[in-house]
Amino acid sequence: MNGVWTILRRSPRAAAGAGILLAMFLLALLAPVLTPYSPTSQDFSSWTTPGREHLLGTTALGQDVWAQILYGARKTLLIGLMAGLIATVIGTTIGVAGAYFGGRVEDVLNVVTNVFLVLPGLPLLIIVSAFVRGAGVWSIILVIAFTGWAWGARVLRSQALAIRNRDFVQAAIVSGERPGRIIFAEMLPNMAGLIAANFFSTALYAVLSEAGLSFLGFGDVSSVTWGTMLYWAQARGALLQGAWWWIAAPGLLIALLGTAFALLNFGIDEVTNPKIVHSIRATKVLRRGRKAAPRLVSGGPEPLMSIGHLDAGYVTPRGNVRAVRDVSLDVAPGEFVGLAGESGCGKSTLAFAATRLLDAPGAVFGGEARLAGTDLLELSNEDLRRVRWKDYSMVFQASMNILNPVIKVREQVYDAMQAHGITDPAKLDARARELFRLVGIREGYLDAYPHQLSGGMKQRVIIAIALALEPKLVVMDEPTTALDVVVQRQILQEIDAVRRRLGISIIFITHDLSLLVEMSDRIAIMYAGEIIEEAPAKALYAGPKHPYTARLMNAFPELEGPNERREGIPGRPPPLSVELRGCPFYDRCPSRMPGQCDEHKPASVEIVPGHRVACFLHSPLIKEGDVAHAAD
Ligand SMILES: Nc1ncnc2c1ncn2[C@@H]1O[C@H](COP(=O)(O)OP(=O)(O)OP(=O)(O)O)[C@@H](O)[C@H]1O
């Protein structure tokens, strides 16, 4: 339900579509209240023009057109929605089953889908409906659903294939979950936006098909729908008689209903595609208790990026996974901030949420992400498009896969610049060459295709694109993890050189704490969705305060000195789908204090300027509630 409200709130198109649809539902429901006449009774004089007695005039047989419109809405809506629903269920089942099971099943389902796709739609509809002619509204619904599911199956299969390869689905398969559970609990919720958009586009197809079939006389002409009204109007020569109302009323309403479905389709796509679904209920709950975001570096410069009390995660059928919990983090202009922590602690969710890229079922539950004072989470999609790439950009681990293999690198580098108004060919060329020099690729590769470049070069191209408009901030989530260590180091050195030259800020996410110590001005350590320690890199290296940071440091080899055997951290982080009481590291902490650390949550406290830690060893008296109280 939250998702529905979010879509309506964020997309004026979806809201307009829903408004029109609601109005039509009301017309259909309130038909007996809105007209005293039956849609089929022929009690009136023929061809009466619209007026007080007959709002929309009468037909050749003396039926009231307004009554026909009201009662016809019932069947037209029923046909549109039910045919849309059935076609979506068939399309989703076939698309997802093919993607999930692969092999023979996928081959067979693909052939079936392709056969339906190549058969021309209208002739197929006409042939099938000719067979079931006169069999009633439900046969029309089934005919339309039967001929209209294939396109949805194709689209949903593509998305299901992508989701099936995601880590959480692979993990569910490996852990032996049943296919039905994986499909319904893991995959389908991730496809909700596309399934809903597909439903409305199929409903649109159904309404238009019913109108077309009825108009041609292949519908159930004995029942009153907007489509059969058109059929009878045409058959009785309404236009020749000048009875425009008989044609105009159902015609316009069909167009309006089609528009409503199309608007809902676009609106859902607009909101679910641009990577954010706000959970309003959760947002409200969390905002009620919002405190002022703490400034990280006391007395430091005004931050460029200020993430304040950000809560984000995933909406799943088993409840919300709170992968980012009340995280506040500031980044000063030109600063290199490293974010480290074990796998699954929420680093990527934080990066995606703060840059408005969190895909459904990901959701921002509350908080803010201000870039130069503007909260990115509040921007309209249009405004977001304006600032993305220009004011901030992102490089992710698999970013190099976004390069289109059949388009030359040059054009793909030009893309972002052209989208922001740089169109002069000479300027584009000069800038592209400069960027390539900056990230250490020979300019000649501008005219290569991506498949001619190595993984390292492709990732450099992505970094060049991210820097193209000289953004103030670049968020990098494991940008070099897929590359070998030598290339990794070279690229990182170049990123650092570019940052210093252009004065951009960087948020850099990695598992590799030793790398961060070398590169960063400041480091934040994440654990179980929270930032548990943050400090200047050198201070953190020299004296980590949180037992987790200390153990994390110990798990990596020293930068210098003899090689020693490193210890891991025994135990596992707590699940993020449950509320945590006390310190999240309690179970694994060698210094835990029963009665204190498991009962109370330690607040993040600045123990020396610029060094914050959330641990009772260093802030024994301060619990989270105390801080909230003090802030009030
Ligand atoms: N689509 C999803 N549905 C439910 N939970 C998810 C989904 N995606 C991620 N999670 C969970 O959210 C938590 C945080 O994941 P995230 O990818 O942000 O961690 P991370 O620190 O970036 O991990 P890594 O370093 O391995 O990339 C994990 O526990 C993960 O299982």
TrEMBL record:
Positions of the ABC transporter domain: 307-553
Protein name according to UniProt: Peptide ABC transporter ATP-binding protein
Keywords noted in UniProt: ATP-binding, Membrane, Nucleotide-binding, Transmembrane, Transmembrane helix, Transport
Main location class: membrane
Upper classification of the organism: Bacteria, Thermotogati, Deinococcota, Deinococci, Deinococcales
The ABC transmembrane type-1 domain, residue ranges: 73-265
Membrane-spanning ranges: 12-34, 77-101, 108-131, 137-156, 188-207, 213-232, 244-268
SMART domains, per database record: AAA
Pfam families: ABC_tran, BPD_transp_1, oligo_HPY, OppC_N
Membrane topology, record value: Multi-pass membrane protein
